[in-house]
Design brief:
single chain, 336 residues, alpha+beta, Glutamine Phosphoribosylpyrophosphate, subunit 1, domain 1, eight-stranded mixed sheet, 10 helices, 13 strands, globular, disordered N terminus, binds aspartic acid, Ntn_hydrolases_N, hydrolase activity, acting on carbon-nitrogen (but not peptide) bonds, in linear amides, Peptidase_T2, Glycosylasparaginase
Length: 336
């Protein structure tokens, strides 16, 4: 065996790649049939259409499912599903009504990925409710992948988005109460509602994902979490699957959580195993005190198998499959 061929074979084995076909060895040519050796060739029938989303997001998932059942793309479905939460003023962690930063400004983050691996994101946007749609416009109508702050707002206004005050009376009151002590600490969410991360498989079997949030309540001005960052709050690879995160974004970013989960699935782990390992990477860090913060993941693979796992109890997700939409309690790590 030529040396280069040996190296190729050895590294493929070292990565634990699955479904390696007999054509992988020749590295002098990169025919598309050889590239396919790196992805699952499982003949299992895909469960589709399917939607999975973080937290109790019944209406958002129902909306996405309706789009999919009517034949829309997974991309269209996740955008439309996320818009429901962005418009829901009662939800204080997404879109209008989101809790502000410590200066009283509501700033939104969002990103979207399609089945071709395209990605668009907006970070720290004020005055625009449907940031998920702005993220899609960044992906489709600009040569860039991320727009931030004023530039993102200017772009949104040019694209015809409506300027509006995102701070509701309820969120203003909560911020004023918080200011009395100005204590900042991450909160373990037990209200069963937070950032929405959504993944969908359409009737053609294509996967897309979206994630939208107002970020951590009372964050420092300018703080951005995992939600709009590729590989952090969201990652999709149409040949493998997708993953999305919620919770303390700093911890998700430090472990590149969603990308990690997709890569683990590529290497043969089930979505559930991959989510559990990604949580493990956070909680097993030497000296890490995970008692005070929460992270939750959801994942789906190309066959429509799903997984979810969090550090603490109280994380749930909505799953639409076989024409049923259910809110399901996630398994979790900290059972002490
Ligand atoms: N992950 C989001 C962030 O860190 C917040 C959340 O999911 O609650 O901005």
């Amino acid at each position: 065996m030529k040396r280069r061929n040996f190296i190729k074979k050895a590294s493929a084995t070292g990565l634990g790649l699955v479904a390696v076909s007999s054509t992988i060895i020749s590295c002098d040519e990169t025919k598309s049939s050889e590239k396919k050796a790196f992805v699952s060739t499982s003949k299992t029938k895909t469960i589709k259409p399917l939607v999975i989303a973080t937290w109790k997001t019944d209406l958002a998932v129902e909306t996405a499912a309706k789009y999919l059942e009517q034949g829309s793309s997974a991309l269209e479905a996740v955008e439309q599903g996320c818009r429901i939460e962005e418009a829901n003023e009662k939800g204080q962690s997404v879109g209008k009504g989101g809790l502000p930063d410590r200066d009283g400004n509501v700033t939104l983050d969002a990103c979207i990925m399609d089945e071709k691996g395209n990605y668009g994101a907006v970070l720290g946007v004020k005055n625009i409710k449907h940031v998920i749609s702005v993220a899609r416009k960044v992906m489709e109508d600009t040569p860039h992948v991320m727009l931030v702050g004023e530039g993102a707002e200017k772009f949104a206004l040019e694209k015809g988005f409506k300027k509006e005050n995102l701070l509701t009376e309820a969120s203003k009151k909560a911020w004023e109460k918080w200011k009395e002590k100005s204590e900042y600490k991450p909160i373990i969410n037990i209200e069963n509602h937070d950032t929405i991360g959504m993944l969908a498989i359409d009737k053609k079997g294509n996967i897309s994902g979206a994630c939208t949030t107002s970020g951590l309540a009372y964050k420092m001005a300018g703080r951005v979490g995992d939600s709009p960052i590729i590989g952090g709050g969201l990652f999709v690879d149409n040949e493998v699957g997708g993953a999305s995160a919620t919770g303390l974004g700093e911890e998700v970013l430090k472990t590149v959580g969603s990308f990690l989960i997709v890569e683990l699935m590529r290497q043969g782990k089930s979505p559930q195993e991959a989510c559990e390992e990604a949580i493990g990477r956070i909680v097993n860090k030497p000296g890490k005190n995970f008692k005070d913060f929460q992270v939750g993941y959801i994942a789906v693979n190309k066959q429509g198998e799903t997984g979810a796992y969090s550090i603490h109890e109280w994380f749930s997700y909505n799953l639409y499959k076989n024409k049923e939409n259910k809110n399901i309690k996630s398994d979790f790590f900290n059972k002490a």
